[in-house]
Design brief:
Blueprint lengths: L10 E4 L2 H16 L4 E3 L13 E5 L6 H12 L3 E6 L5 H5 L2 E4 L20 H21 L4 H6 L3
Parallel strand pairs: 1-2, 1-3, 3-4, 4-5
């Protein structure tokens, strides 16, 4: 995954709901690392273009708006990365790269990944840790120090 993400590419992060908060945190951290990144759905987010990196995040891999947007991004020849807990899903089928983050989703009966937490809390928490780890690896790849990242912090 780290070798698929480059600073000369714009990055778009598309995610909804509580997971969306984790996705916005991920986008912010990428900005701190010097990437050009946008959160899909914000009023200032530009249109995607060929060669952009499109991160689609959905625990179920079936979130309606994320699926529709991802299909549009794929049709514009974006590089699609999907983060989901469902290897077999609409989003995973659209992706060039899939990152599986195990966790229950709203529709699970709890048999695949047992958790006492409600809805997709386990996925959301794991997502935050996994995306932060990805950012840490990207900081190593690009030789970004903590002080350099801090200088981009508001």
């Amino acid at each position: 995954m780290v070798n698929f993400i480059f600073k000369d590419k714009r990055i778009f992060v598309d995610v909804e709901g509580r997971s969306g908060l984790m996705g916005k945190g991920f986008a912010m951290r990428l900005m701190h690392l010097g990437y050009t990144v946008y959160s899909v759905g914000e009023t200032i987010t530009p249109a995607v273009d060929k060669g952009d990196i499109y991160f689609s995040i959905s625990s179920s891999g079936e979130s309606d708006n994320v699926v529709v947007n991802t299909k549009k991004a794929k049709n514009k020849d974006c590089h699609v990365i999907v983060v989901t807990s469902k290897e077999i899903s609409t989003l995973a089928a659209l992706a060039e790269k899939v990152l599986i983050v195990p966790g229950t989703t709203k529709g699970d009966d709890g048999e695949q990944t047992k958790s006492v937490q409600l809805l997709s809390s386990l996925f959301d928490q794991s997502l935050h840790i996994v995306l932060d780890a990805l950012c840490l690896m990207l900081s190593y790849k690009n030789n970004i120090s903590n002080s350099e990242a801090t200088s981009k912090h508001w």
